[in-house]
């Protein structure tokens, strides 16, 4: 694991006693600050490699801004590379040895809570979260009626396409696009596959997403029809399976003219397509002559503090600072990470931005909030296997009813 150390200069003595976490918040100066003393603290931070790039280090910039805003601290930073997607896997190995502050994708929240590795936000941080975010986003970092983590971006996917190939009308329909040029889609990835099933097959997850006892349900007859549609897509000569992000490589090579991904690929797509770069919300698709809207899983990426941290108060404050409006703005400027702050996204700087609007339209109008309960883990391998059975032609139009019924029964039995 690559470690990058950044140390504050001129550490001084006299550590002050920590106040209760309920008093945490960037607007609440510590007793150390009020009496003119400083507190020496060490904070270990996990963040993605992209946020620590040598020539574009957003994390380091944010840490320096935090130091400036919190002169009551003299901070030694210990930065390490752990992506949001890998946070739970890494934290669970030993929560007591994990970073004081880390960034995570909200679908891992249930696991982090179960591991006792994520702290409930304090009073001032909660005010910040409520001020910056819609209720949907707040719900994405909530578990058992408590809020954990400070969102800094919505986490979903949309469509990138070549404007020289597809018109504004073309991109409204996946079927139209497949009739004109090659399109990549990750049919064997459960984070994407459900987008073609929630509407057409009445696929549901744990009731409102929080009740494991309600399980994963689907209408067998509708799933049969939807499966036949997926088979037809997989057999279309213009369909290209996006496997392990091969869709981006194919787009860069000119082998496909559209694919589905998130804001993390924006820079590479812009470089590949140049003036023909396009980003759009999700298209519709047709099953048995009826049109359905693709519906993506959505959530958030958020910053959190570890309740095992030695300096819990400073850790909680820095986690909140990572999700502040200032930090979100610089995150976009440096890496095009789309802010979740509703005031920022409504500003002139963002409201006419094609990328921002694509993601926000999906999140607000074409998404299903991904459940964060641990029972959701049962979906991924099962969905992958079903998608693979279609792309490798084990599932066909002729046996779709049999395969759909078997999968529906498997899903129903998972959380019994």
How would you portray this structure in words?
The chain is an alpha/beta fold. The chain has 2 domains: 3-148 and 299-365, Periplasmic binding protein-like II (D-Maltodextrin-Binding Protein, domain 2), CATH 3.40.190.10; 158-295 and 372-413, Periplasmic binding protein-like II (D-Maltodextrin-Binding Protein, domain 2), CATH 3.40.190. Helix content is 38%, strand content 20%. It contains 18 helices and 18 strands. The strands form 5 sheets. Strands 1, 2, 3, 4, 7, 17 and 18 form a 7-stranded mixed beta sheet that branches. β2 (39-47), α2 and β3 (73-81) form a beta-alpha-beta unit. α9 crosses α18 (400-413). The longest helix is centred in the middle third of the chain and has 16 residues, at 220-235. The model is unreliable at 1-31 (pLDDT under 50).
- Regarding quaternary structure, how should these chains be classified? single chain
Structural class: alpha/beta
CATH class categorisation of the largest domain: Alpha Beta
CATH superfamily of the largest domain: Periplasmic binding protein-like II
**Uncertain stretches of 5 or more adjacent residues:** 1-31
Biggest sheet architecture = 7 strands, mixed
Domain count, please report it.
2
Termini Cα gap: 39 Å
């Amino acid at each position: 694991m690559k470690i990058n150390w950044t140390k504050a200069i001129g550490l001084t003595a006299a550590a002050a006693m920590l106040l209760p976490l309920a008093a945490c918040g960037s607007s609440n100066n510590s007793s150390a600050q009020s009496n003119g003393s400083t507190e020496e603290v060490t904070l270990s931070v996990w963040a993605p490699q992209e946020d620590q790039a040598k020539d574009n280090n957003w994390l380091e910039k944010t840490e320096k801004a935090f130091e400036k805003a919190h002169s009551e601290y003299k901070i030694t930073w210990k930065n390490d590379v752990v992506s949001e997607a890998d946070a739970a896997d890494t934290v669970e190995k030993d929560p007591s040895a994990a970073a004081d502050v880390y960034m995570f994708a909200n679908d891992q929240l249930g696991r982090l809570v179960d591991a006792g590795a994520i702290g409930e936000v304090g009073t001032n941080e909660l005010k910040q979260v409520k001020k910056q975010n819609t209720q949907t986003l707040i719900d994405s970092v909530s578990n058992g009626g408590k809020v954990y983590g400070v969102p800094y971006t919505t986490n979903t996917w949309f469509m990138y396409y070549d404007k020289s190939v597809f018109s504004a009308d073309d991109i409204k329909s996946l079927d139209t696009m497949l009739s004109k040029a090659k399109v990549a889609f990750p049919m064997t990835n459960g984070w994407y596959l459900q987008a073609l099933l929630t509407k057409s097959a009445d696929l549901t997850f744990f009731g409102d997403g929080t009740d494991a006892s309600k399980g994963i349900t689907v209408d067998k007859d509708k799933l049969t029809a939807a499966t036949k549609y997926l088979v037809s897509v997989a057999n279309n000569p213009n369909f290209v399976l996006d496997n392990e992000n091969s869709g981006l490589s194919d787009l860069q090579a000119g082998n496909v003219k559209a694919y589905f991904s998130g804001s993390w690929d924006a820079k590479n797509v812009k470089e590949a397509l140049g003036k023909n770069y396009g980003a759009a919300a999700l298209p519709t698709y047709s099953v048995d002559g009826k049109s359905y809207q693709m519906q993506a899983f959505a959530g958030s990426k958020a910053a959190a503090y570890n309740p095992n941290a030695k300096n819990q108060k400073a850790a909680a404050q820095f986690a909140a600072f990572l999700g502040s409006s200032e930090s979100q703005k610089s995150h976009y400027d440096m890496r095009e990470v789309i802010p979740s702050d509703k005031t920022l996204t409504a500003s002139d700087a963002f409201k006419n931005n094609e990328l921002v609007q694509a993601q926000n339209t999906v999140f607000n109008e074409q998404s299903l909030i991904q459940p964060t309960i641990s029972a959701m883990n049962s979906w991924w391998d099962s969905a992958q296997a079903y998608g693979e059975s279609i792309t490798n032609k084990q599932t066909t139009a002729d046996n779709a009813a049999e395969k759909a019924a078997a999968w529906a029964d498997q899903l129903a039995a998972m959380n019994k």
